[in-house]
Amino acid sequence: MRTALFLLVATLMPGQALAANQVALDNNVFVERVSTDAQGKQKILLEEPKVVVPGDRLVFVLNYRNAGAQPADKFVITNPMPAAVRFADAGDTSPLVSVDGGKQWGLLSDLTVPMTDGSRRSAQPADVTHVRWAFQKPIPVGGTGKLMFRGVVK
Amino acid sequence: MMKAPVGGAKHQLLPSCSILALLAAFALPAQAQAAGTRAGSTISNTASASYDAGGGTTTIDSNRVDLLVDELLDVTVDSSNPADVPTTPGATGQVLTFSVTNNGNGVEAFGLSTIANAGGDNYDPVVTQIYLDNGDGIFDASTDTLYTAGANDPSLNPDQSITVFVLATTPGTVVDGNRGIVSLVAAAKTGTGAPGTSFAGQGEGGGDAVVGSTGADGTDAGAFIVSAATVTLLKSAVVTNSLGTADPIPGATITYTIVATVAGSGSVSGLAITDNIPADTSYVPGSITLGGSAQSDAADADAGDYNGTRINVALGPVAGGQTRTVTFRTTIQ
């Protein structure tokens, strides 16, 4: 009975209060715009997504921080691709990806996709349904980091 | 457009938001349209992290970011006539066919207009009306809708097309081979401009409307080609008599030859040659020939006939560049 009551209270409490001593994961989305200056030099700008239309390149930035008192072991971050966004790349963060809704995971170059005729073809960025980073070493107390991936609005 | 972030990190005892989000994502209809994600829809992103800080696996969700997809304004116009449309001098109701497609991701109305004096041709067709097709792709003034700018601007869904007919009159002064160009222009009613120009709050679903790569207006040209034909008749007469001279004495025979020459890139239809038998001469029965072939005097299956006062040869349709030769004989009384 006591435990059940505690669970109920926990459910009603705002999430932030509980997270204070835990790992925090912050999610930001930017629009990548290429501008060409008077000298014809291209500049890539990350802008607040005030206006988003099909074809825009979005940059998803995930900041994590171990705010807890213990190292965080077996640290895994997973980001399902929003349905309206086609995965493009993840810079040099080399994530694992899934192309089947999160059932199987691997490097994009190792995955295949079934074709209608029963054969399989190499997976393409557009096939990605989930992006995942699995850390080999524990995140020390106070440790922070940043991950990113790009997608295009379908 | 950015929505206020909602949610935040949650404890493991709470229901897993990431699984719920996943189920919701698969329940959405596939966004396979060429025009892209529909304006007004929301792109939601939430990441999750799992770790073990000594007390077993803990899973947390990130904050959720919601992006409202804004409306992209794009339109293309394509001429549907595979080649120049033949016309004739003074002809009215000459039809050019175009297709207008909404390449944007929201419902948009498009204003239509025409340009006939842009040059690059020989004459300016006079545009009289624009009609909106009823869906069968064939112009019919009784079933298609007369377009009035500002009153019934066609409203198209993303990826939807409409067939538009432009009716024009060909000036009477044009000559064979002249070409006249008419362009149809379709412009998004929300606004046009340089790609990237945005109209705050005017997009479908409450977002902004943003001009796409087409400038939110499209144009394409169709052309008429004057395909006319002219007919010239040349008549000559040769007299023969029993004396072996060319003197038109009583009893002499006159052989008339009429050569019809059709010139131009078009053709004439229903061309007929009629000639009255001159006074003081009488027609020689059965003397009509067409291209060397004898014709009967009765009005029957063959082309020639004689009704007592005149000969008539029906030539039917004759294309430019061809000639027809008709002969008949009379006797001087």
Structure described in brief:
The complex is a heterodimer of chains A (154) and B (333). Chain A is mainly β and 154 residues long.
Structure explained in plain terms:
Chain A has a single domain, classed as Sandwich (Immunoglobulin-like). Helix content of chain A is 10%, strand content 44%. Chain A has 2 helices and 10 strands. With 333 residues, chain B is mainly β. Chain B has 1 helix and 26 strands. Chains A and B meet through helix 1, helix 2, strand 1, strand 3 and strand 4 of A and helix 1, strand 1, strand 2, strand 3 and strand 4 of B.
Compute the number of structural domains of chain B. Answer: 3
- Number of E-type strands of chain A: 10
Specify the biggest β-sheet of chain A.
5 strands, antiparallel
> Quick check: average pLDDT of chain B?
89
What is the total domain count of chain A? 1
Overall average pLDDT of chain A: 87
The percent range for helix content of chain A is 10-25%
Taking strands numbered 1, 2, ... along the chain, how are they ordered across the largest sheet of chain A? 2-1-3-10-5
Radius of gyration of chain B: 37 Å
The proportion of strand residues of chain A reads 35-45%
Q: What order do the helices and strands of chain A follow?
A: HHEEEEEEEEEE
How many DSSP helices of chain B? 1
User: At the fourth CATH level, what is the homologous superfamily of the largest domain in chain B?
Assistant: Immunoglobulins
Number of strands of chain B: 26
What portion of the residues of chain B fall into strands of 2 or more residues?
over 45%
Highest CATH level, the class of chain A: Mainly Beta
- Work out the helix count of chain A: 2
Summarize the SSE layout with pairings.
The complex is a heterodimer of chains A (154) and B (333).
Chain A: H1 2-12, H2 15-19, E1 23-36, E2 42-47, E3 57-66, E4 73-80, E5 85-89, E6 96-98, E7 112-114, E8 120-122, E9 130-134, E10 144-153
Antiparallel strand pairs in A: 1-2, 1-3, 3-10, 4-9, 5-10, 6-9, 7-8
Chain B: H1 17-27, E1 42-45, E2 48-52, E3 57-61, E4 65-68, E5 71-73, E6 75-79, E7 85-87, E8 94-102, E9 108-115, E10 126-132, E11 145-146, E12 155-156, E13 161-169, E14 179-188, E15 198-199, E16 209-211, E17 217-226, E18 229-240, E19 253-264, E20 267-276, E21 281-283, E22 289-290, E23 293-294, E24 304-306, E25 310-319, E26 323-332
Parallel strand pairs in B: 5-16, 7-17
Antiparallel strand pairs in B: 1-4, 2-3, 6-8, 8-13, 9-12, 9-14, 10-11, 10-13, 14-17, 15-16, 18-19, 19-26, 20-25, 21-26, 22-23, 22-26, 24-25
